[in-house]
């Protein structure tokens, strides 16, 4: 049985999830952290991603086009009153990616002052990762109504020998990537084992979600629970260029 922790839904970040965003222009990008489902208004943005231009060769003697994409990780915690980012100020270079992960049991959303910068609606050069902790078949779609869809099949490996255990651990160390571009997912179907991470990398799009179809109605929208049906559906309110390398580097 799928628990709340196991739910596949990029609109609601839990400790088995990460949100990633690449920043393709220099500048200061302010954002807030809020409980999932509170709406799309940013009334304060106390946290900062500072992006510096890097056209000139740096200490590693590599230009922006030549060097590998850098990655910074922000840990999201709840201090008893509100969500806080550690560190509160991140400094990266143009083209780098920032990952957000919350080890606490409080679901949250990352929402920036700029339209492209939001974990609950994935736009260009963003991503979402999920660790699958239970076996089963997970059909997913876009809560914002596009035709984007896919399926992840999760199996429980038989671990009866030391060799089988080593093989399972080796698989856990490697993630799978699903690239979303032009309204399509590639691959659309994927087979993984329990404990493995899948990275959904959105290279371009109008703003999508990766959401278990069990949470959507027949038209692909967030579903409200019907008093006549015990289907457990609920409603969560909604509201960069470059390559996608780097997102597979790790999961906080």
Estimate the helix proportion, in percent.
under 10%
Domain count: the total is: 2
Total E-strand runs: 16
Instruction: Give the biggest beta sheet.
Output: 8 strands, mixed
Mean pLDDT: 82
Distance between the termini: 25 Å
- Percent range for β-strand residues: 35-45%
Shape label: globular
Describe this structure in words.
With 252 residues, the chain is mainly beta. 4% of the residues lie in helices and 35% in strands. It has one helix and 16 strands. Strands 5-4-7-1-9-15-12-13 form an eight-stranded mixed sheet, with no helix packed on it. The protein has a four-stranded mixed sheet with strand order 6-3-2-8, with no helix packed on it. Strand 10 and strand 11 form a beta hairpin. The radius of gyration is 18 Å and the shape is globular. The relative contact order is 0.22.
In short:
By secondary structure, the protein is mainly beta. The chain has one helix spanning 162-172; strands at residues 17-22, 27-35, 47-52, 71-78, 83-86, 89-93, 97-101, 108-112, 126-131, 136-141, 149-155, 176-181, 184-186, 189-193, 197-202, 211-212.
Task: Outline the secondary-structure elements.
Blueprint: E1 17-22, E2 27-35, E3 47-52, E4 71-78, E5 83-86, E6 89-93, E7 97-101, E8 108-112, E9 126-131, E10 136-141, E11 149-155, H1 162-172, E12 176-181, E13 184-186, E14 189-193, E15 197-202, E16 211-212
Parallel strand pairs: 3-6, 4-7, 11-14, 12-15
Antiparallel strand pairs: 1-7, 1-9, 2-3, 2-8, 4-5, 9-15, 10-11, 10-16, 12-13
């Amino acid at each position: 049985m799928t628990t709340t922790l196991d739910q596949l839904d990029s609109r609601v970040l839990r400790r088995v999830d990460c949100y990633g965003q690449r920043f393709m222009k220099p500048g200061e990008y302010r954002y807030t952290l809020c409980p999932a489902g509170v709406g799309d208004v940013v009334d304060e943005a106390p946290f900062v991603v500072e992006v510096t231009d890097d056209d000139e060769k740096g200490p590693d003697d590599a230009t922006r086009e030549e060097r590998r994409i850098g990655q910074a990780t922000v840990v999201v915690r709840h201090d008893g009153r509100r969500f806080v980012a550690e560190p509160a100020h991140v400094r990266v270079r143009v083209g780098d990616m920032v990952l957000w992960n919350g080890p606490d049991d409080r679901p949250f959303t990352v929402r920036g002052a700029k339209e492209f910068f939001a974990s609950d609606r994935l736009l260009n050069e963003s991503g979402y990762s999920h660790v699958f902790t239970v076996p089963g078949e997970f059909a997913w779609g876009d809560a914002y109504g596009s035709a984007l869809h896919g399926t992840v099949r999760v199996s429980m490996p038989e671990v009866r020998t030391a060799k089988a255990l080593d093989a399972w651990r080796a698989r856990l160390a490697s993630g799978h990537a699903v690239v979303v571009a032009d309204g399509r997912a590639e691959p659309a179907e994927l087979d993984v084992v329990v404990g493995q991470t899948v990275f959904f990398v959105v290279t371009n799009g109008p703003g999508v979600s990766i959401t278990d179809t069990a949470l959507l109605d027949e038209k692909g929208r967030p579903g409200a629970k019907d008093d006549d049906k015990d289907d457990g559906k609920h409603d969560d309110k909604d509201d960069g260029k470059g390559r996608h390398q780097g997102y597979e580097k790790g999961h906080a």
